[in-house]
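Saturday, quiet lab. Running sequence design on the structure tokens for the scaffold JK sent over.
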């Protein structure tokens, strides 16, 4: 799919399966919840390179735990294919900023909204959508974005995660592939164990901060920051 490097696909789908599976397990223990999983930028739903698509993965986990599931796709041809994969009742055609409103998310408690844009779709519009979704009580948000895209647009930098989106805890998955795709999970729980096999850690651990620094800065900026921190302290004035 345009804007996504093929090399990153297996890693992306393995991460999604592990992260969403873990979250599903935690949510399903909270019996008072009424959860929903939403794939907000679902694509055509077709498996690629022997790996399930994101709507297949998320629908499978939702079905296993008895959660509701919806998949949204704006492109008409991809939507037709998506319907064949997830079924008519679970598929919504249109822009996710509009379709999310049709789901009545306020009536749910717990769940996950997944945003997986192409590299070229990382822009202020996406930022506004994720921000809107982060304010819903219905669940957590998972974003798959390129670190190179983040540096270009200034979005999702560390300050935005800390002070912007309305989620208390953040987890990050180490960058993969040429375009340095990272996953960021905004959640209201800190009870999610790290997943070392995929480099998924809490954002404010040393490893998490290191990942965020790579998202915030170019290699040259990181080298400059490193050389500043290596400069010996100036002698104190007497
Ligand atoms: C990278 S692909 C999704 C791939 C899919 N998550 C997977 O891993 O199988 C991104 C998709 O988002 C769709 N898209 C982009 N902006 C959208 C929007 N605002 N609302 C709904 N779909 C959107 C694109 O048409 C494209 O099919």
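Result came back. Writing it out in full:
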């Amino acid at each position: 799919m345009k804007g996504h490097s093929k090399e990153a696909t297996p890693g992306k789908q393995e991460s999604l399966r592990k992260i969403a599976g873990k979250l599903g397990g935690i949510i399903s223990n909270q019996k008072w919840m009424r959860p929903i999983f939403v794939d907000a930028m679902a694509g055509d739903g077709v498996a690629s390179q022997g790996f399930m698509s994101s709507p297949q993965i998320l629908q499978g986990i939702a079905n296993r735990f008895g959660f509701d599931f919806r998949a949204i796709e704006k492109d008409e041809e991809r939507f037709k294919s998506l319907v064949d994969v997830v079924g008519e009742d679970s598929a919504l055609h249109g822009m996710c900023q509009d379709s999310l409103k049709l789901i009545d998310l306020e009536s749910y408690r717990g769940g996950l909204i997944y945003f997986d844009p192409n590299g070229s779709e990382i822009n202020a519009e996406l930022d506004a959508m994720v921000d809107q979704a982060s304010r819903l009580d219905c669940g957590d948000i998972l974003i798959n974005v390129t670190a190179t895209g983040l540096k270009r647009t200034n979005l999702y930098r560390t300050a935005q995660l800390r002070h912007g989106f309305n989620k208390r805890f953040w987890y990050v998955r180490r960058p993969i592939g040429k375009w340095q795709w990272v996953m960021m999970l905004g959640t209201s729980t800190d009870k999610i164990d790290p997943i070392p096999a995929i480099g998924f850690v809490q954002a404010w651990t040393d490893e998490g901060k290191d990942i965020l620094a790579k998202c915030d800065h170019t290699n040259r900026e990181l080298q400059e920051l490193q050389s500043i921190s290596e400069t010996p302290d100036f002698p104190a004035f007497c």
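Notes for JK: The CA atoms of residues 150 and 156 lie 7 Å apart. The pocket of S-adenosylmethionine is lined by residues 1, 4, 41-43, 53-54, 72-75, 78, 95-96, 116-118, 121 (CB under 6 Å). Ask whether to fix the surface positions before the next round.
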